[in-house]
Every structure is written in structure tokens, then in C-alpha cells.
Design goal:
By secondary structure, this protein is an alpha/beta fold. 33% of the residues lie in helices and 21% in strands. It has 9 helices and 9 strands. The strands form 2 sheets. The chain has a 6-stranded parallel sheet with strand order 1-4-3-2-5-6, sandwiched between helices. The protein has a 3-stranded antiparallel sheet with strand order 7-8-9. Strand 3, helix 3 and strand 4 (83-85) form a beta-alpha-beta unit. Helix 6 packs across helix 7 (145-158). The longest helix has 16 residues, at 118-133.
């Protein structure tokens, strides 16, 4: 596996059909499942590792977001990644950068309401990565259902020649969806956080009593989901379950 840090080195490393997995690092089994899915369908698998400052609001966890490039590189190499793209912020956002992608309606509800500007940062960095890598396919997890919806809408609206592949949410044995932010949880907080997948499975907001709930709502994505965001201590967690096709 090659680790590259510039757009020029990246483009020199691409051969054949290419699958892209955009990430912010802190790799866990959810990321690894995306790498393996990309490996099955492409000649070259590229994973980006970039903690995108544009998708963090002031006061969020940009400075403490998990970072361990050596560990992430080892996991990527073991799970089918050919090229790990680790750009500096200046490579993605050169001096004077002022062009942004804003998926207005989808980006303003749920997460967008509670994290203004978040999806502008997500859409912009993903479009930048699509332009640099020119992948046939890009891989995302169903856990980030609204992010997937935003990216799909952007790809449609801007006629980006990339297929968006969505892989199932990966959970720990206790049901908690895997997330890099789970590392912030104390043992007691992790036990409290289990109310989130349980409430979603039961379709019961009341099961979240005692937690700070940002939202617990159905969203008409593709597929339709019941999505929720809660705060456990100082940690904010999101999750969703697919409800499309359910009978009432």
C-alpha cells in the first residue's frame, strides 16, 4: 500500500477501475467493511484520511477527534486498500479557497439543523475528492444515512460520474453502531448510550429518557429511515434504522 500526500502523487498511483472510501480516520470495523467492499469491485482502492475542518462547527471536537495515522495505515493495508491519501488541509483548501457546495434542503434538516454548515463541508470535501480520484464507485456507511442522502443528491444534481455504494451499519455485539467517537465514552456512558439502538429498534423515543435528544424522526431518504441523535455526557452520537416498507 502506498501512502500519498499530494494530488500529483495520488493521480500517479491510480490504475484501472477505482473505488474511493472517504474517511476521517479512527478506523474501526465499519471502515474496514467499506474497504473490503471496494476491494471486491475495483482494480484500485483509494481511502482518504482527512479530518475535514470544514464540517466541524466552532466548539465541536475537531481538536480531539481521534488521530493515529500509523494504526490507520496498518489497518488499511491489511484490508485491501492500495492507496491511502493523507492530504494536508492546504492540499484540499488552498489559500484563498472560496467555492462551496451546499445541498440546501437535505443539508438543512436533522443534522443540518443542529450542526449548521456541516453538510456544506461534507459535500465540498467529497466533491473535491471525487474530482481528484475520479472513482467509478465511492463507498459510504448506512449509519450516516443523511450524509449518504446529501452525497447522492449532489452527484445527481451535478452529474458526477460516480456510483454511490452504501454498506450496512456495523454494530458491536451490544448493538451500539461503530463510530470513531465511541472512544470518547466512559464505561458508564457506553452503557447509557445503548439506549440509542434500543430506542430505534423499538421505534420508541421514550426509551431515550435521561439522554439529551437532538432529534428522533423519520426521514424520507432512500431508503426511508428513523434517525436519531443524542448526547451522552459530552459525546454526540447518531444512528438510524431503515423503516421503508414497514407495515403499520
Amino acid at each position: 500500500m502506498k501512502v500519498v500526500r499530494s494530488a500529483v502523487a495520488l493521480q500517479l498511483s491510480l490504475q484501472g477501475s477505482t473505488g474511493l472510501v472517504p474517511t476521517m480516520g479512527g478506523f474501526h470495523e465499519g471502515h474496514l467493511s467499506l474497504f473490503r467492499a471496494a476491494r471486491d469491485e475495483n482494480d484500485t482502492v483509494v481511502a482518504s484520511l482527512f479530518v475535514n475542518p470544514a464540517q466541524f462547527a466552532p466548539g465541536e471536537d475537531l481538536d480531539r477527534y481521534p488521530r493515529d495515522e500509523e494504526r490507520d495505515a496498518a489497518l488499511a493495508g491489511e484490508n485491501g486498500v492500495d492507496v491511502l491519501f493523507v492530504p494536508a488541509a492546504e492540499e484540499i483548501y488552498p489559500e484563498g479557497f472560496q467555492t462551496w457546495v451546499d445541498v440546501e434542503e437535505l443539508g438543512s434538516i436533522l443534522e443540518g439543523e443542529h450542526r449548521p454548515g456541516h453538510f456544506r463541508g461534507v459535500a465540498t470535501v467529497c466533491l473535491k475528492l471525487f474530482n481528484l480520484v475520479r472513482p467509478e464507485r465511492a463507498y459510504f456507511g448506512q449509519k450516516d444515512a443523511q450524509q449518504v442522502a446529501v452525497i447522492k443528491r449532489m452527484v445527481r444534481d451535478l452529474a458526477e460520474p460516480v456510483e454511490i455504494r452504501v454498506c450496512p451499519t456495523v454494530r458491536d455485539e451490544d448493538g451500539l453502531a461503530l463510530s470513531s467517537r465511541n472512544a470518547y465514552l466512559s464505561p458508564e456512558e457506553r452503557e447509557q448510550a445503548l439506549a440509542l439502538p434500543r430506542a430505534l429498534a423499538a421505534r420508541d423515543r421514550g426509551a431515550l429518557d435521561g439522554l439529551a435528544v437532538d432529534y428522533f424522526e423519520e426521514a424520507d431518504f432512500e431508503p426511508r429511515v428513523l434517525a436519531a441523535a443524542v448526547r451522552v455526557g459530552s459525546t454526540r452520537l447518531i444512528d438510524n434504522v431503515v423503516v421503508e416498507g414497514e407495515t403499520t
